[in-house]
TrEMBL record:
Gene3D superfamilies: Homeodomain-like. The keyword Metal-binding does not apply. Coiled coil: none annotated. Pathway: Sphingolipid metabolism; Lipid metabolism; sphingolipid metabolism. Keywords: DNA-binding, Endoplasmic reticulum, Homeobox, Lipid biosynthesis, Lipid metabolism, Membrane, Nucleus, Transferase, Transmembrane, Transmembrane helix. This is Ceramide synthase 5. Its main location: endoplasmic reticulum. GO terms for molecular function: DNA binding; sphingosine N-acyltransferase activity. It catalyses: sphinganine + octadecanoyl-CoA = N-(octadecanoyl)-sphinganine + CoA + H(+).
């Protein structure tokens, strides 16, 4: 039964061009090597554990001292007065409505304003410190920078970077180079580590979206390695890593309260996002996978799947750029990305709280949904 399911999942008719079998890829010419999925997975899983351990040491020995130098303190939040009734409701509803506030006021013999203040402080108590978000962003910034530099160094001397038709000549019988292997293993291990650390990192509004994103990324890396689409795969990964470097740098500047640097880096990120994901990716890489591969090797079943996923990804790029452009325009013409927007910390005074029980919660939701969440670390971008 297991062999039947495995044969169905890894059907040669689906994943490989016509007249090509998995056995053909297991017998490379002397002195050459073709990708073997089992080989990569055997290295990627232990390396993912190593990445998690390395991250712990990096955040403690590098990122945290940098945060102290920049005077980014952990900052212990104000603690609420313990109350079992309010805590029980908070676990199911962090923003009680007017009717609930009235009921709690009668049950506890508290003023509604006092209950509102308790919930506001309790929400702030769960919010991560700026130092924690700074350390997470510094880790991602370091990885993206190092892996991008490595990718450029490998691809710069690769003929398929300058002539994308080289991605399909003699496909899938293309030898595996050490640079390709290292790049793929590093990326796969990193995304496996993100899958695990997402459950312990700062909880963000897009938790489920990013969980699906990480799974999809791992799936694409795995299948492109398995059917030896490494040349196009390395180009795709490199293009996506490029703009992420500037986004994480902008977040670091934002946490350190260097507003002008933050604004400048975000504009640079916007430009790099536009060039890499709306120009280079569709007109260079997707064009090659869609049209040049059709001309050289012809379509096969997995070809339709891979191109469909790339087109869906390009649609997301367009949507993301629209949202990013709005922030960049604000940075250019108003001179600030996030300073004049609502902070992700609720710090309004008691006098700011109206008698309407839902007003404070509505304000909180506006904070969370504001586009500055990108820089405050409330959402990811990939």
């Amino acid at each position: 039964m297991t062999s039947f399911i495995s044969a169905w999942i890894w059907s040669e008719r689906f994943w490989l061009p016509e007249n090509v079998s998995w056995a053909d890829l297991e017998r490379p010419p002397a002195g050459l090597e073709y990708p073997r999925l089992q080989h990569m997975l055997c290295h990627a899983f232990p390396l993912a554990v190593g990445v998690l351990v390395l991250r712990l040491f990096f955040e403690r020995l590098v990122a945290r001292p940098c945060a102290h130098i920049l005077q980014i303190q952990a900052g212990a939040p104000r603690r609420v007065q313990p109350n079992a009734v309010l805590e029980r409701l908070y676990q199911s509803n962090t923003c009680p409505d007017t009717r609930q506030l009235e009921g709690l006021s009668k049950q506890l013999d508290w003023e509604e304003r006092k209950i509102q203040r308790w919930f506001r402080i309790r929400r702030n108590q769960d919010r991560p410190s700026t130092q924690k978000k700074f350390c997470e962003s510094m880790w991602r910034f370091t990885f993206y920078l190092v892996i991008f530099i490595y990718a450029i160094g490998h691809l710069w001397v690769s003929p398929w970077m300058w002539d994308t038709r080289q991605c399909w000549h003699n496909y899938p019988f293309q030898p595996l180079s050490p640079g390709q292997y290292n790049y793929y293993v590093a990326e796969l291990a990193f995304y496996w580590s993100l899958m695990v650390s997402q459950f312990t990192d700062v909880k963000r509004k897009d938790f489920m979206i990013m969980l699906v994103h990480h799974l999809a990324t791992i799936f694409l890396i795995t299948i492109s390695y398995a059917n030896n689409m490494l040349r196009a795969g390395t180009l795709v990964m490199c293009v996506h890593d490029a703009s992420d470097v500037f986004l994480e740098a902008a977040k670091l500047a934002n946490y350190a309260k260097y507003q002008r640097l933050c604004d400048s880096l975000f504009v640079v990120f916007s430009i790099s996002f536009f060039l890499t994901r709306l120009i280079i990716f569709p007109f260079w890489i997707v064009y090659s996978v869609l049209f040049e591969s059709w001309q050289i090797i012809g379509p096969y079943q997995a070809w339709w799947l891979i191109n469909g996923l790339l087109l869906v990804l390009q649609t997301l790029h367009i949507i993301w750029f629209y949202l990013i452009a709005r922030i960049a325009v604000k940075a250019i013409f108003k001179g600030k990305v996030s300073k004049d927007d609502r902070s992700d910390i609720e710090s309004s005074t008691d006098e700011d709280i109206s008698s309407n029980g839902s007003k404070n919660c509505q304000t909180s939701k506006l904070r969370d949904s504001s586009h500055t969440g990108v820089l405050n670390g409330d959402t990811h971008d990939h």
